[in-house]
Amino acid sequence: MLPIINLSNIVKIYKSGSDDLLALNHINLIVSKGELTAIIGESGSGKSTLLNIIGLLDKPSSGIYQLSGIAVDELSDDELSVIRNQKIGFVFQSFFLLPRLNALQNVIMPLIYRGVHDKEAKLCGMAMLEKMGIEQLWHHKPSQMSGGQQQRVALARALIGEPEVILADEPTGSLDSKTGQEVMDLFIELNNHDRNTIIVVTHDQHISQQCRRVVRVHDGSIVSDEVN
Amino acid sequence: MQLKRHFVEAIANLLSNKLRTFLAVLGILVGTASVVAMISGGKLATRQALAQFKALGTNLLSVQINKNSNNSSSNEGMDLSTILAVKQASPQIEKIAPYTNLYVPITYEGHVINGGILGVTASMKSVMKIAMESGRFISFLDTHENFCVIGQDIYQAIKNYSVGDPIGQQINVADNYFTIIGVAKAWQANSFIYADPNNSLLVPIETSKLLSKYANIDSVIFRVNSNADIDTLQNQIKNYYSSMDPGADFYFQSAKEIIASMQKQQEILTVFLGFIGSISLLVGGIGVMNIMLVSVTERRREIGIRLAIGAKRKDIRIMFLIEAVVLSLFGGIVGVILGILISFIIAEAKHWGFTIFLLPPLIGFCVSSLAGIFFGYYPAYKASKLDPIETLRME
Ligand SMILES: Nc1ncnc2c1ncn2[C@@H]1O[C@H](COP(=O)(O)OP(=O)(O)OP(=O)(O)O)[C@@H](O)[C@H]1O
Ligand SMILES: [Mg+2]
Questions:
Q1: Which residues of A122-160 are buried (b: 16+ CB within 10 A; e: fewer)?
Q2: Is residue B23 scored above 60 in pLDDT?
Q3: Which of A28, A55, A58, A53 is nearest to A223 (CA)?
Q4: Which ligand 1 atom is nearest residue A49's CA?
Q5: Which residues have C-beta within 8 Å of that of residue A184, sequence separation ≥ 6?
């Protein structure tokens, strides 16, 4: 299998005053195309830190990270932006939609930053909303939608650029278990059907059980990595 | 991302917070309005000043002859022929119009008429560009006749007491009857000639000297060759008159000099008002900067989201910069409109003609958008340097 994500000896140290905090301690992780992976671990174990480094939002203190064959630690901020735009789709716990824009405008943002024209982007965006089953809400602002609906918009936004990997940090954390399961069903569907590579950080054992691969983090280290 | 989209988003964002937007641009608005008003007003004033001379021409020179109080030997002053003989002093003199100005009681049909007497020669008509409504002007043949031409205001006054043709009617001046031989059209006053023909009876200059012993020829207006060197000419005239009347002082004024000093005053005023305008623009710009900094802080999360989904730092910078420019341009547009309105009100109040000049609004737009770029740059730069992780961290 083609490795999309290849982390070797990743260390992240937060310097806070006199004592340094070792948030990630020599992480080695390879994720291949088409995998659905859950990252679990107690609060403060370093799950988000790991996901942010994978998502190029944060930089490791040391170690080598290759994203689909590209060594990313030498890249400039703007080059990282381009890679985030083209290869990565983010889903966050609290959705992070832009409040002034409607659902469709939110969904097409990645394409707009890519320079795609408005009309074309909107056609794409409508197709994406349809896939998420919320095309009738395209003109709604985030404040006019339920949490589950907002997360579907966020997922549509993550998918629209056809990224190589979807990174979701507690995507069901703000939802009730029923809506959370519906969102999880979408992830599974995307993984089964479209062979999307997906990494989900979660607290919820119920969610992680549904993933083929489960990586457990403890105190900044990977303590287990199981494939069901 | 296309520029057009940035503008659309900036406008949408500013409209979503109308009151704040309005308060933020108030300074820019006032600054632009004052810059536009002052330049427009200045241009209108200059044009108005020049318009006075449009009818009259600028090739004019006037001399005021004042008795030197220490020297009582020549209290009579120069006589008419001496005054006129100055023409020999320079070939640049085209026409000479000396006049006397005196105030004596005037009555018509027993009613008191308020007005003065101007003793003039025939050349006064062409030098002062007096147009006739009816009848004729004073002629050189009229010398000591008791004829008079009445100004427009006088004509309006006597119309109250008689309906017929004024020509040939009698008007009483210091117990002498004068025959009206002509009615002058309204004459446009200007800052160069002190005499007011509208409110005067124009009589032959020799006649005026008979009316009062105080009727001295104390003013002379020259129409000169338009290429003449005014300073040289002034000296020639002065030398001549001084030799004829050593007991007098001479004060010269030329139309060109008056225009130059008006323009100079205008320039000083423009610089002064420009300074005030710049200060208010500076204050306005700081207002824009302040509001943009607040906006950046409020929209940290949005900036983080945009960076996460692929915005480059440049995109963030342009987004905020364009918002600042749109903000100040909005202030600029309203300010330009307000400024034009103010200059219109000034023009109305002063009875000037009003025109919209192209330059002041252009300067207004440029200055306000430049203020937007200048004062919006730092907030935009600050926004573009935010760390996505910091901005996306949950509170
Ligand atoms: N910017 C920072 N400065 C200092 N310490 C940080 C910073 N970000 C994270 N940390 C620390 O790094 C450790 C890992 O944090 P991280 O957010 O990755 O945990 P997590 O596993 O995602 O926890 P949770 O399940 O609560 O989200 C924590 O101890 C946290 O306090
Ligand atoms: Mg976390």
A1: bebbbebbebbebbebbebbbeebebbbbbbbbbbbbbb
A2: yes
A3: A28
A4: 18
A5: A171, A172, A207, A210
pLDDT digits (tens, 9 = 90+) for A102-115: 999 999 999 999 99
Q: Is the pLDDT of residue B131 over 70?
A: yes
A24 in contact with ligand 1, CB cutoff 6 A? no
Shortest Cα distance from B16 to chain A (angstroms)?
8
Nearest to B310 among A94, A96, A113 (CB): A113
Residues 6+ apart with CB under 8 A from A195: A33, A34
Q: What is the pLDDT of residues A162-180, one digit of tens each?
A: 999 999 999 999 999 999 9
> According to the model, what pLDDT value does residue B247 have?
79
Domain that holds residue A92: 35-61+75-227
In a domain, A20, yes or no: no
Name the residues around ion ligand 2, CB cutoff 5 A. Answer: A 48
Residues of B with CB under 8 A from a CB of A: 1-2, 5, 12-13, 16, 301-302, 304-315, 388-389, 392, 394
Count of domains in chain A? 1
**Which tokens is A172 given?**
């069901």
Alpha-carbon distance of B191 to B45, in angstroms, equals: 13
Within-domain flag for A10? no
Q: In CATH, what number is assigned to the domain containing residue A217?
A: 3.40.50.300
Please indicate, yes or no, whether the overall pTM of this predicted structure exceeds 0.80: no
Nearest CB to B392; choose among A78, A81, A96? A96
Inter-CA distances, B20 with B174, B287, B288, B381, Å? 73, 11, 11, 22
Q: How far is CA B113 from CA B119, B159, B177, B212, B289, in A?
A: 18, 11, 14, 18, 67
Closest chain A residue to B315 measured between Cα atoms? A113
List the one residue out of A51, A55, A50, A39 whose CA is nearest residue A204. Answer: A39
* A23 Cβ inside 6 Å of ligand 1: yes
Contact B302 A98 (CB under 8 A): yes
Using the structure block, give the residue that is written with the tokens 């020179």.
B61
Q: Is residue A24 part of a domain?
A: no
Residue B133 CB coordination number (10 Å)? 13
Dihedral sign, Cα of residue B342, residue B345, residue B351, residue B352: positive
Q: Which residues of A touch B307 (CB under 8 A)?
A: 57, 81, 84
Q: With 0-12 CB in 10 A as exposed, 13-18 as middle and 19+ as buried, what is A227?
A: exposed
Segments making up each domain of chain B, as ranges: 2-53+261-394, 68-247
The predicted pLDDT at position A210 comes to 93
Separation in Å, CA A19 to CA A11, A13, A15, A23: 16, 10, 7, 12
Question: Does residue A17 belong to any structural domain of this protein?
Answer: no
pLDDT for the residue numbered A17: 78
Other CB atoms within a 10 A radius of the CB of residue A9 amount to 13
Amino acid letter for position B158: I
> What confidence tens digit (pLDDT) does each residue in B244-280 have?
888 788 888 888 888 888 888 878 877 887 788 888 8
Q: How far apart are CA A4 and CA A6, in angstroms?
A: 7
Q: Which atom of ligand 1 is nearest to the CA of A47?
A: 21
Q: Give the ipTM.
A: 0.95
The answer to whether B96 and B84 are in contact (CB under 8 A) is yes
